[in-house]
Amino acid sequence: MTIDSYTQNLIHYYRIFEIIGKKGLYTFRRRVPSDLTQVWNNGQPQREYKVALKTTDKALALKRGADANLAFEEKVRVLRRHQQDAEQKTVLEKLEERRWIIQAATEMLKKEGVLPSQQPNLIAGASFDDILNWQEQVEVSRGLIVDNLQDRYLDHEQRQKDYDAGRWGRKGYKEPYKPIEPNDKDAVAYEIITGQTPHQSVEPTWKDCVELYIDHNKSASQRTAHNQKKHEQRVWSIANDLAAFIGSGNKQVGYTTQLDQFTRLMMRGFPTYCSKRHPSWKTATYNKGITLLSAIFNAGIHVFELSLNNPFRDLKVNKTAAHVSGVEDQDIERRSFTPEEMEQYVEHLNGKKPQIKAIGLLMGHTGCRTMELGGLLNEDVVLGSNVPYLNIRPNRIRRLKTLSSERRIPLTSEALDILRQYQEQQQNKDPKAPLFPKYGRDGGMEALSQGLRNIIRKTMGISDPRLVPYSTRHTLKDKMRLLRTPLSYQYHIMGHAQDNAIADGYGEGDPLIYIQRELERASQLTTWGPEATV
After folding, report:
1. Gap between the Cα atoms of 366 and 472, Å rounded
2. CATH for 339-523, among 1.10.630.10, 3.30.310.10, 1.10.443.10, 3.30.830.10?
3. Model's pTM, two decimal places?
């Protein structure tokens, strides 16, 4: 049997093996850290940890010693975490600690031979005396566990007060005990030996659930640091609202509410609470918040293996059409530019610096989202193909909104001129470099959106909140509707999901040619909207 590098390191760093007795059996020995000597053996001081390896073979002893050392390190880690203030522990640390305590209590009972699964099996031929002896052993162990718990949790201070007041020893007097900690190994062992099944999980609170969701979502989503910070702010914002609602204004009380106390009846008043607390919220904003709360709760159900219904499932608000409700629809978030507004917008863009000018103008010609263009790399501009195009795909700068957002957008002649003029002024030609370095960075998209929005709000003086830079997409969509552009092409240009291939039934050749023709037609259109005709 060979000795691996791990066990070699053990031999080097720890004097963990020695031969005891005439039989030459090996034993694992390691000094207990000084900060854990008082808690190592369930409250009994212990300075050294020993494990009988039950072998005289040195190579086998080293292997078993390596396993014993791993168990030692795990116990050190869990005990130190247990000593932390409960408020400092993460929910995963609490969960790990709980499961380790159950395992440790089980091993303790198993070592004593009183684990319920170790009871004599009549089918295996156990005698009546075997059964009685085992039951007697269980009762003795149970009594010792109870004695240990009584000794540890007896409230000596209160007992002294009772003695001084003359209450101690009177008829009916009950000894004062402190509440037993759920994660006390003896308490868990008592549950097991009496036939109970200890909870495998902690009883998570709303705060535990939120922290768990953020941690899991962070590793799964792989956002940039800036976008992750924004996401966490959104999560905590809506989580704070819910905590304040549950706690009747006291967020701390709300955050300590356990998940099994959440009910749909409890949540029925939350929509009204949000409408009063955030009167400016639109329906979509509120529904996004409910989606987040639902995702947080589902994460808790999954990780803690809870059998609970999601109380947020029916809390979204369905919009009522304006012509049905008789009330003007305030949730229309975007509108198109009018031809006059678009002319002014383009005029002001032409007076801006090269990067924001190019992005703003290209949005009108391609229908791309702000982030899709602002996050382009040099290599995403493909000019050497039969049909020049922009390769809209995820990259290190930004992700895409949906899977269908990944697409190729052909360039019209005017869009091609805009790009070539811009590229001539650029210094960094590295294919992996951002096409727009001022905005192609973590946090740069906010500056880009604000710069374009300022043209509309401040320069053009338009205060209508429905008109934003993103309205160029709506404008191009209006143009394509007016031109009767095939829906499959519209879906491709907008980056929307579609059922049919974009070139079905439209002849041979590169389908980008047909899309390019539609974009050329749209770029030459000077009137659009409800009253326009072609």
Report:
1. 9
2. 1.10.443.10
3. 0.58
